[in-house]
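Our platform keeps sequence and structure together, in a single record for each protein. Such a record has a labelled line for the sequence and another for the backbone structure tokens. Nothing more is needed to write down the fold, since each code stands for a local backbone conformation. For reference, a complete record is included directly beneath this paragraph:
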Amino acid sequence: MLDDLTKAGTADPDTQRARDAVLWRAYVAQQDAAPLAALFRDAILTLAAPHYDAVQRAAWASAADDLDSFDARLARGVTFVAWQAGQPVAFGQLFPCDHVEMLYVAPAWTRRGLASALIARFEALAREAGASTLDTDASALARPVFERAGFSLVVEEIVRRGSVSLPRFHLCKPLVAASFSG
């Protein structure tokens, strides 16, 4: 299932490609929770700064404060994690089978196609499950990534994290072509 996401390194461990190889695998409950919580916080606090103020980012990032709840959230559905040199560099979740629930990339690993690779795999899984659409609730940061993958804006929403309001964007991509012939 993960084979199409794996970038294999070369046989020579001293080459740049081998050092930069990314290994994709499924989420391992409990074991992966703490490092993914750290990635989640870092991505929000660093990458979302142009779109959300410090109070909004702190409220959003606080979702990882309760590690047991964060772990339970990651353990549902299908969660893929990209690892490089023993550290997570990206992760995403499909839950349920037609909704991209989470998608985060470590700040040092942006613009390398990791988010796009996750979206493509989730789209393939949604199609395999017979879903007619794939949707997500994206941040202002993630919205362009999803739009480049063929998602369209359905509605802009405001969600609350405690007393803090955060804008987000509900996006959708049709997976089944409409037939207009009679």
